Batch of 2 targets.
Target 1
Amino acid sequence: MTAALVPAGSTAWTPTRRALRLGWALVSGVLSWSWRHTRWVLLVAALAFLTRLLPDGPVLAEWLLLLGWVAPALVATVWVTFWPVSYRRSVAGPAARVRWVCWARRRWPHLARECGLSVNREQTPTRSARLVGALTTGPAPALPKVWVHPRLCSATARGVTLTLTVRARTGQTVDDLEAVAPALAAAAGARSFRCRAVSPSMIEYDLVMSDRLTAVREATAPTDVRVDAVPLGRRQDDTAWVLPVTGRHTLVVGCSGSGKGSIFWGVCAGLAPAVRAGLVCLWGIDLKRGVEIGMGRHLFHRVATTPSEALDVLAALRVVIDQRGHRMAGHSRLHTPTPSDPLHVVAIDELAVLTAYTDPEIRKEASRLLAEILTQGRALGVVVLACVQDPRKEVIGLRGLFTQTIALRLRSAEETRMVLGDGTADLAPAHRISPATPGVAWVIDEDGTADRVRADYWPDRLVREVATHHPAPALHAHDIGSATLEMEEASNSEGQASAVASASPRARKPRSPRKPRQPRQPRPAPFNGGSSRSGGEAA
Ligand SMILES: Nc1ncnc2c1ncn2[C@@H]1O[C@H](COP(=O)(O)OP(=O)(O)OP(=O)(O)O)[C@@H](O)[C@H]1O
C-alpha cells in the first residue's frame, strides 16, 4: 500500500535502486571475471572439491573458493569500475604482457609453420646411423622428416607492443621474414605492426596489440624554442612523434578530411616560439583562398594565396638560396639558423593547385623553382613543407625530391605505393586508415621502418592563440637578404594587379612575375652569377 502511494521515480526508491544496480554490477563483474579466467576458476573449484574429502574439508573448501575465486573477482570488479586507469596499469597491462610473451614462445613453431617460414626436411642422420648404414648392405632406411623453423631469439613485451626477435633459418633472408609480417600480426591479433632488420639474418617484429591512437589528443601551445624538430603527436607505441624540420623537405599526402591541417599547424605553430625569436621565418602558400593560413596569419612573414603570388614567394626564396650559397661557399656546408639569418620554412597548402591545376606557364615555372629549392635549399636553410590531396597529379614529378613523407589516409594501395614507395602497401597500409581517425598517418623512419602515428589536433582557437602570442618579427634587409626584400617590395606593389589578373576570367594567361621587374629591379651587386638567374627571373 505504501509502495503504491510512492510515485515511480520518487527519491524514496533511489537508495533501493542504487543498491540493486550495485549488486547487479558486482554479480555481472564477478561472472565476467570468472568467464575470462575460466581455467583458474576450474582449478580452484577442482581443488575445493578435493579438499572436501579431507577432515574439516568443507570449511577449508569454502575458504578456498572464497579466497581463490570470489575475493579476487570482487576486488578486480570494484577496482576496474572505479579506477580503470590504475587497474590497467597495475593489473591488466602486466597480465596481458605475460600472456602475449607466453603465447608467442609456446606457439612459435606452429606460427612459423603456418606462416610459411618453416620447411619440412629429412632429419640429418646421426654419426652412429651413418656408421650402421655403411656396415649394412641393402637400401638405407628412410629418415624421418622434421620441421625446421627460424629461431625465436627473444619475445618481450613493453607497453602495448610485443617484440619478437627472429633469426632466419639456413636458406632464408630477412626479406623472407619481413614478407610474413602481416600474417604473423594477424595470427597474433595485433592491431598493427612494424618490422626492423637488426642484421642480415635477424629481424625484429613489433606487434602492437592494442590501438592507442583511437583517442583524439588536442595539441598544447608550444613553449620551447626549437628549430631542429617539432613534436607533432604520438606513435602507435604511445611514445612521442617528433618530426625533424632542419634539413628536411616534408611532403604530407592525404585525401580530403584526412587531417593535413593538424600536421600543417603542428609544424608551423610548433615552430612559433622560434618564429618569435627570429630563428625561423615562415612563408605561407595557401592556394585554398588563404582559408587555412588565415587562422594563424601573424606567424608568417609573407603569405601567397594565388598561384602568381606563390611564384613570387618561391622566387624570393630562390634568391635567399643564391645569397646564402655565395656566403657559405668555402666556409660552411650546413646553415645554422641565427636571429639575423633564420631558417626559412615555406609551408604550402594544396601543392597540386600550383603544380597541376593552374595555367601551364605558372605550373612550369613553379615546378622549376620548387625543384631548385628542393634540391639546393636543404643545406642552405630553406626547407619546404607541402600538403597535397592527390598524389597522382603532377606533384609526382617532385615527390622524389622531398626527404620525408607523411602518408595520411589514402584512397588505394596504389596511392600508398606512390607515396611511400614500392612494397609499402602491406607494411604501411595508409589506404586502410579509417576515415574515423583523422590525423592518423604512416611514416617511414630513418632506419627504413614504417610506423603508425597520430598528429595532435589543432583547433582554430589554439592556432589563433599561438599566432597572436608569437607573431613573426618585422624582418630587416639583412635578415632575409636584400634581394629578397627588394623583390618583395616590387611584388607587393604589383601583387594587387597580379591577383586581379589571375582572378579575372578573361585573363587567361597570367603575368609571369619574373619578367616585368627586370628592367626596374637592380641586381644585388655581390651575386652576379646567382642574381642573373633568380633576381632577373623573379623580378
Ligand atoms: N589530429 C586530429 N585528431 C582528430 N581529429 C582531427 C585531427 N585532424 C583533423 N581532425 C578532424 O578532421 C577534420 C578534417 O581535418 P582537416 O581539415 O585537417 O583535413 P584536410 O586533410 O586538411 O582536408 P582538406 O584537404 O579537405 O582541407 C577536422 O575538421 C577535424 O575535425
Target 2
Amino acid sequence: MASISRNLRRSLTPDRLRLLLLLSQHPREYVTAECHRPVVLHKRGPDILHDPWFNRGTAFSMTERDRLGIRGLLPPNVVSSQQQIDRFMLDLKRLQKYARDGPSDTLALAKWRILNRLHDRNETMYYKVLINNIEEYAPIVYTPTVGLVCQNYSGLFRRPRGMYFSSEDRGEMMSMVYNWPADQVDMIVVTDGSRILGLGDLGVQGIGIAIGKLDLYVAAAGINPQRVLPVMIDVGTNNEKLLKDPLYLGLQEHRLEGDEYVSVIDEFMEAVFTRWPNVIVQFEDFQSKWAFRLLQRYRKTYRMFNDDVQGTAGVAIAGLLGAVRAQGRPMIDFPKQRIVVAGAGSAGIGVVNAASRTMARMLGNNEVAFESARSQFWIVDAHGLITEDRADIDPDARPFARRKGELGHQGLSEGASLVEVVKKVKPDVILGLSAVGGLFSKEVLEALKDSSSSRPAIFAMSNPTKNGDGKIGHSNQGNNMYLFPGIGLGTLLSGARVISDGMLQAAAERLASYMKEEEVLQGIIYPPISRIRDITKEVAAAVVREAVAEDLAEGYREMDARELARLNEEETIEYVKTNMWSPVYPTIIYRKD
Ligand SMILES: NC(=O)c1ccc[n+]([C@@H]2O[C@H](COP(=O)([O-])OP(=O)(O)OC[C@H]3O[C@@H](n4cnc5c(N)ncnc54)[C@H](O)[C@@H]3O)[C@@H](O)[C@H]2O)c1
Ligand SMILES: O=C(O)C[C@H](O)C(=O)O
Ligand SMILES: [Mg+2]
C-alpha cells in the first residue's frame, strides 16, 4: 500500500485502484479474473454499508463514495484492505492482552461493545435497555467509558454511525448532507474532536462523544432516534501519536487554523440548516478558543448552543444554588458566596460568566452589582491564580482576573497555588473543571476546613472521572447531562429560532428547584440519574415557557405559538411528555413507492 500514494489513489478509477491494490497486497496468484469482475449493485447509500456482501467500510475509495452516495458516511481516511485487517487484528489481539494484563476498563469496554452491537441491530430494543437501566448503562454509553471508547476508536470502529465532514470536503458539504438517509433531523451533536472530555485532541475518534450525547437525547429527552445525527468535523489533528498511527481513521495532517477553520464550520452550518431548517445543533468538546468564538458567531442566527460552555454553566449554577440551600441559607444569599474555580477553559469560564450574571441579577443588575459579583470569584488555571499581572492573559478570562488592589490585603499574588488560594480566601465553594487528576488533594481539602462557610461545597466536575477529581463521588457528579437533553427538547418543542440566555437560565433554575428541601439539607445537590427522564421533561417545559415568555416560540407541528402561550405550567409539562418518544415497536405498514 505504501507504494500507492494518496494522490494516486484518489486519481484512479475505483476498478483500476482495486486491481492495483490487489496486486500490491496479495501474491499474484490470488488476483484472478473472477475477483476483478465488476459487481452490479441495485442499491445506493447507507443500504450498501449495511449489506455485508458489498460493504467494504473505510476501504471505499473517494470516487466510489461519490458514485454510491456514501460520501460523508465514513471516516475520511481511505484505507487499504490490508490496513483494515491490521486494525481488526490489533483489536482482536488487544482482548487477549487485556485479559492477561487485566486493566479494569476491559469490562466496561466489553459492555460497550455488546450494547453497540445491539444499537446496530435493533434501536428500539437498545433504547429500551438503556432507559430501563439508565443508572447502570449511562456510564457505559456516555461518560466515563465513552472517553475510553474514543481513545480506542480505531480498533472499535465497526459500522459507521453519523456523518463526517473533513477539510477535504470543502465545497461539497451542501450536496453531501443529502447522503444522510433521514428527511427529518431534530438534533445534531457536532464535535471537531479537539478537546474530548479531559483527554485532549482525539481527532476523528471524537465522533464517539457525539454518539454518546445523542444516546442521552433519545433516552432522557425522548428525541426520536431516527432524527438524531452525530457529526464529526475532521480538520486534522495536532495529536502527534495519531498523526503517525497507520491505523488512524482521520486526516493525518495538522489542524486547520484561523479563517480556513472557520470557513469549514460555516460551510457545515449552512449545509445542515439548508437541508433541515428546524434542526438544533449542539457544539461539543471544541477546544475553548473555538468554543467561545463559534458560540458568539452563530448563536444569534442559528438554533445552537455549546454544551460545555452553556450546559455545564447551568448545571453548576443549579449546584451552587443548592449549596447555598444546603448551608441552611436563603437562595438570595448566593451573591455572598466566595467561589474558587480550578480551570479556566470553556467550562470554567462558562461557569464563572453565567454564575456571576446570576449573582448580578440578584443584586439589581447594574454596574455595581456586576462588579460585586465579579469579586466573588478566584480562578486558578495551570499557571496558578489569574490576576491582572499576568502577561498574555486569555481574553475570555480577563474580566475575572483578580485586581491588583485586591491582592495585597488578601496576601495573594499572580500564580498563587490552589492550596494558597483556598487557605487565604476561605471559600464557600471550590469547583474543579481542569481535566487534571488529584487537584483537590488532601492539602486542599484540609485548607477548606478553615472555610468561613458552615458547610463548604466541593464540585468535582472534571472528566473523565478516572483522571479527574471525581474520586469524591461519581454517581452525583454535576454533569451537563442534567441539562442538555432538556435544553434541546424544550427548544424543539417551543420552536424557538435561537436559544436565549433566559431559556438557559430557566433550565438551570428548574434543575435547582427540582431537589426537595430535605434532600438538599442532607447535602444531596443533584438528583439520581434514574430520574433523568423526569428531570429532562421538567427542564424542557421550563425552557418552552421561557421561550414563550420571551416571544421566541414559533410553535411545533400542530401546536402554534398562540396555543403554546395558552398552556399553563402543568399543561406545558403534559405537552412535553406527550411529545417524548418511547421505545415501543410501532405498527409497520408496507407501501411501494
Ligand atoms: N461535568 C461536566 O458536565 C463537564 C462539562 C464540561 C467540561 N467538563 C470537564 O471539565 C474539564 C475542563 O474542560 P474545558 O472545556 O474547560 O477544558 P479546557 O482544556 O478548555 O480547560 C482546562 C483548564 O484547566 C486548566 N488547568 C490545567 N492544569 C491545571 C492545574 N494543575 N490547576 C488548575 N487548572 C489547571 C487549564 O489551564 C485550562 O484553563 C474537562 O475535564 C472536561 O471534561 C465537565
Ligand atoms: O461529556 C461529559 O460527560 C461532560 C462534558 O461535556 C465534558 O466535556 O466533560
Ligand atoms: Mg463536553
